[in-house]
Amino acid sequence: MEKRESGKKLWIWFFAAIIFFAAIYVVWSILNATEIKTEKITGLNGQTKVVQINENTRKWTENNYNSLSMANVTDLLFGGSSSYETYGDIVKRFGKPADSESMETNGMKAKEGVWVNVDSDLGDQVDLTFVDVKGNSDVDNYVLIAKKQADQ
Q1: Which helix (H) or strand (E) holds 150?
Q2: Least confident piece of the model among 22-26, 101-105, 128-132, 135-139
Q3: Are 106 and 132 a contacting pair, CB within 8 Å?
Q4: So what's the pLDDT on residue 60?
Q5: pLDDT tens across 46-97, in order?
Q6: pTM score, whole prediction
Q7: Residues 6 or more apart whose Cβ sits within 8 Å of residue 113
Q8: Which among 133, 145, 130, 54 has a CA at the least distance from the CA of 88?
Q9: Which residue in 112, 105, 149 sits closest to 129, CA to CA?
Q10: Is 60 exposed, middle or buried (0-12, 13-18, 19+ CB in 10 A)?
């Protein structure tokens, strides 16, 4: 009889350990989950394309959009303030753009980006244009010069 009870206790501890490790796995999975969804966007070249969006990335709100500090091109030409939003700042806050393009015209480097992780009050996407003010292509030297809300 005593052998039978010790065997029962062993099985109870065995199942308790399984339940414990299963619970730890579930909690770990929830904490490390990234939700990726796909969405159609209008790319910078005007063509529709499908991109993947990380749902855990901070969303653009109308307040975020309206508070963006854009550089005045005239100020930049004459050594204006450095308190403008940079490409690096935006990527840190909202993640990488769903579509981006770098270009150079007459020695002036620029970047355009499309972010689609937006709240519904803002439209479907946010298009931003940055220009390199120091000429060394560091993301923190690209300052915001234009912004646009867009519906697809």
Answers
A1: strand 142-150
A2: 135-139
A3: no
A4: 84
A5: 666 665 555 556 778 888 888 888 887 677 666 655 578 889 888 888 888 8
A6: 0.63
A7: 87, 90, 97, 99, 100, 127, 128, 130
A8: 130
A9: 112
A10: buried
pLDDT at 105: 84
What is the identity of the amino acid at 58?
R
SS (H, E, C) 36-102: EEEEEEECCCCCEEEEEEECCCCCECHHHHHCCCCCCHHHHHCCCCCCCCEHHHHHHHHCCCCEEEE
CA distance 89 to 92: 5
Cα→Cα distances 41→37, 47, 59, Å: 13, 8, 16
What percent of the chain has pLDDT above 70?
66
